[in-house]
Amino acid sequence: MIDLTRYPSIVPGLLLFTPFALMWMFARKRRKLPLPPGPKGYPIIGNLFEIGNTEKPWEVYMEMGKEYGDMFYMESLGTKILVLNSLQRATDTLEGRSGIYSDRPVAPMMQEMEFDMYLGFMRYGSTWRRQRRALHQQLNPSAIGNYHHILSLELVQLIKGLESTPQKFESHIESYLSRVIFRAFYGVKIQGRSDPYMVLSSRVVDGLNIAGKPGAFYVDVLPALKYIPEWFPGTSWKGVARYHRENSYRARQEPYNNVVEKMQEGVVEPCLASRMIDALPEPSDPERWEEEIAARDSLAAGYIAGSDTTRSLCLSFVLLMALYPEVQKKAQAEIDEVLSIGQLPTIEDRPRLVYVQAVIREVSRWLPPAPLSLHHATTHDDIYEGHFIPKGTIVTPNIWAMMRDPKHFADPSRFIPERHIKGGRIDKTLPDTTEIVFGHGRRICPGRYLALDVFYTFVTNTLALFDIYAPKSDAAGSKMKYSVDNSGVVIGPHPFDCDIHARSKRHQEVIRLLED
Ligand code: HEM
């Protein structure tokens, strides 16, 4: 017997959607081809309990894959979900058939908060294409070099912070990443967490995390509720939506308008925004207006999407170095072989740092910040490997399962950078986890080159100058306690303690001599 009290948020949906579910069941009968395999559903509600189980769904889906295969399908109350548990399935559909699999499902509350104006949550179409192009022109591999100096300039404050107050490592990392992103995007130097831009961006991320939770708002279950006036009892969600809509609007407008003003005054630091503005068509061009909105909104989408994800990867790296001191020593030995003390690693050193590259691949595999990527959706019916995939299916790429696929990664729960190396080089026959972690197909993360360069800069410079240990209270590094925060769209380690200090007196001296 199912205990409905465990799933309070789905009870109203159960009642409200029963007629739709019946219609859906009859429509299914008309189809000839089978749907992909999947758990048998209950009459009327279908797979509501599998879909409604929001506790670490990436792990639940990985387990379900053992029974139903690397691609399975669930249906409930009109919602259709296809889970892709292997890289092969993601490549075949999201990349091979990207013309069909590149839409996003947009929940009514997301729309009410205007988060569908952000690239990551926008429906597939011409506005999406325009914004995507605007970002890609500034963040592609040949353009990204324009921002490498910022990674190094902002590094000094991070290194000095880690040396003077190592217990605040989390806040130093967060502040480094925000400084890099805001300076690269808008040419501004922000001042810590209380900076107005930081406050605004964290409010938008909070809103995304609230709206991203399935079943958190009744309007997601019954979209017609949005037409009920705000004075009506039980519509407090409308106030929540308005608050986040305002933040979402300000986050798109304010930093961009600031750059426009600075450009007019001739005092702007070259940045993504100024380069996008320079590249806009002439004011008389009919395309100008739309292109300017695309520039403005794609920048906001980038800085909102980039902070939490990159932070999660950096914190996972610190945690893993404390947990696996032998990996840390090996990576430091490689850096010492390539560079002398006092020389800080740069992007140009990357090809010579093979073991460090393997560490980066293994951190990305071990705790991918977006374990279920972002949902894709189909714009048309499709037939894939003899299965019928209906139009409007929500497609969930399970990055977590791909990273733990024993076909590619033996003993997947262990952290073993060596698995990525063969004959002294990166093993190109193994899937590249630093690609998988950024998603697939036309919606793949446009910030991936920037994110990887920032992450590499953080990893190499930290290893070059500091030792990271489990806190003294822990007898051995491998026994250090940690847990993962699964509460948002992006996951990462919960706050944890660790000891960070300069590797030696000479390293301490190098840090002291660094100039701000
Ligand atoms: C380690 C850091 C990062 C990770 C793990 C990550 C991961 C992802 C993933 C998994 C997706 C969904 C891809 C898909 O739908 O298939 C995505 C989308 C996106 N990412 Fe990132 N990302 C990171 C950093 C960044 C940065 C620095 C930016 C800044 C430009 C950024 C901007 C975006 C945007 C705008 C989208 C939406 C793309 C679209 O829907 O077309 N991300 N990211």
UniProtKB/TrEMBL annotation:
Binding positions (heme): 445
Protein name: Cytochrome P450
Gene Ontology molecular function: any one: monooxygenase activity
Cited Pfam families: p450 (PF00067)
Reported cofactor(s): heme
Family matches, as PANTHER family: P450, PUTATIVE (EUROFUNG)-RELATED, P450, PUTATIVE (EUROFUNG)-RELATED-RELATED
Family stated for the protein in its record: Belongs to the cytochrome P450 family.
Origin superkingdom: Eukaryota
Classification via InterPro entries: Cyt_P450, Cyt_P450_CS, Cyt_P450_E_grp-I, Cyt_P450_sf, Cytochrome_P450_fung
